[in-house]
Predict the structure.
Amino acid sequence: MSRIDYFHDPAAPAANSVKVAVSALVQDRQGRILMIRRTDNDLHAIPGGGLEAGETVTQAVEREVIEETGITVEVKSLVGIFSNPEHVIAFDDGEVRQEFSICFRAAPVAGQLRTSSESKEVAWVAPQRLHELNIHPSIRLRIEHGLEPGNQPYFT
């Protein structure tokens, strides 16, 4: 299913749903960030996805990261809660979802990089090279807050 992200766009369609999503800022020992290139909108992003019934948000983060990247992670801390009603995601089935994502910091513990049906590219990217990637502003915000030293959790 394809999607279009609208961010502070007066022409955006009105949201008709909210779903809890999770994402992870995963850094390796060299400080590189685990990034994917999404198959549904062709943008680079940190791994993440929807919370499923019967799992905790931590379990959802761990599941989503391994599904999209092949990397097993351990959740370490909270980056923040991102719930901007001016960021909506329109899917081709008619759903228009208001952003609600809980972002965590996580550390890799095992695995090998691999793509999936949701990620056509997976790579470790040095923070100083992020400007070279097409990243949605809402994902950049999560990364920026996640990289701030001693940062308190962000929320809106």
Summary: The two ends are 29 Å apart (CA to CA). The chain has a mean pLDDT of 96. Helices lie at 57-69, 137-147.
